[in-house]
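Before relying on records like the one below, remember that each one covers exactly one chain. Contacts with other chains, cofactors or solvent are not represented anywhere in the record.
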Amino acid sequence: MLMTARILVFAGSIRTGAFSGRTADVAVKELVLQGAEVTRISLGDYSLPIMDEDLEAEKGVPENAVKLGRQIAAHDGFLIASPEYNSSIPPLLKNAIDWVSRVRKDGGRPFKPYAGKVAALCSSSDGNFAGIRGLYHLRSVLMNCQVEIITPQCSVAHASEAFDENGDFREERLRHAMENVARTLIERARMVSTRIDA
């Protein structure tokens, strides 16, 4: 019997009604439909100062970075739905990723939240490029953190028109793309799982 994949899902924006948040919600539905155990979080619940090594030297890694790291470590994989800011990663998301990468210990024990993790990337934008330019940078950053990124991704263009009244994608093309992302993430996460159960 296959183990149930545990997948963490969050958006790179916490703006009310953000397209990335709506894309993350679609991902949750699809992952659950395919049998995953899903946790949906908001980066707004893990408020962090701007990454600053002087601050880290003085006060250590913020507790919210450790808490977010624990969430990542407790899952087999994660999915990020991100907007694009000036053709790159939104600062909220980049800051969170950077702080979690600084986590080395938890309760005095060695702890690397990203170790052995698999991630899927989605994007959204009201423009023609669907936020895809930001995913190139996001992929590079996460790979530098030793996260394995699956190849399929789902990018939502003209996002203000992309969702129906139930919050689902209107276009069959997008539905198929998200199905493929979810299936690939679940399959790969099961293969390489190193999750740390709380």
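The chain has a mean pLDDT of 95.
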